[in-house]
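Hey, why these numbers?
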Amino acid sequence: MRSFVVSALREPPFTGVRHDETERVARESADWAQQLGLISNGQRLHRADAAGLAGRACPQAPPERLRLLTDLISWLFVMDDACDEDGLGAEPTRLAPTVAALLDVLDRQGAPGPTPPGAAGTLALGLTDLCQRVRGHRRPAVLLRFVAGMREYLLALLWEAANREHERVPPVDEYVQMRRHTGAVYPSLTLTDLALDGFPPAARRADPGWATLEMLAADLICWCNDVFSYAKEHHGGPDAHNLITVLTRETGDESTALRAAADRFNDRLGAYLAAETDLLAHHGDAVRPALASRRNWIRATYDWSRAAARYA
């Protein structure tokens, strides 16, 4: 089942490279998570291979900026596992106090001072550290974009929790919209832009074509993840938060949904390449670094998903 839909995906036509410091950064990030108390042992996080994903997403970044992206991805894996596997996201009333405490951290935007007390515990400690390190780069636009993306991610987790509580499979269009946020793509791209000094100028970001390209990139990253994770998630019962699951509900047939998921990915990849060509024609070198980071992320997700023990 998985092999069919994976083989039907069009391989992203971008070069895939991994950062030379990936292994060292992996060890440092695991130590960071352990010292903060985010994990009791590193087994589950090791299987996730956050550094492997980050190292492919920004293979030319300075090591300390690669560490920042890796630590973010590690934090996101811990948060997602708490919601998806440990019961935190089973219903909104259980998740809400944690989200409220984490929103309190984000509202402080990395300002100096201790982590505010609240229900999020070590998750709040980790998020505070990330925000303070982003703030330390003295790039206000990057900090604000990062905080906004993380806020959207947290609120989208409440949407997932409401669906789980009511055993609701969302319609396809609704799922596609919300998946861009539950995947935390936008804050991850922000730290990748920071790592590569590729944050586009504000005037370029105002181009509607840029917003379109960002959405296309987010869809490709998240749908690739859905395809590779479907077999594992489906093993314990259908997961409502997967592209194949929502397509199965719409079509009434899993085989049809598998083909439809591959077709959607392939069509989106073609649309992404066309949008990228248009942006380069209008903005040229000003957007090349940011385009490179999005290409890296699309390719990184594809390569990492094929190898990650997380979905074995």
In short: The radius of gyration is 19 Å. The mean pLDDT is 92. DSSP finds 15 helices and no strands in the chain.
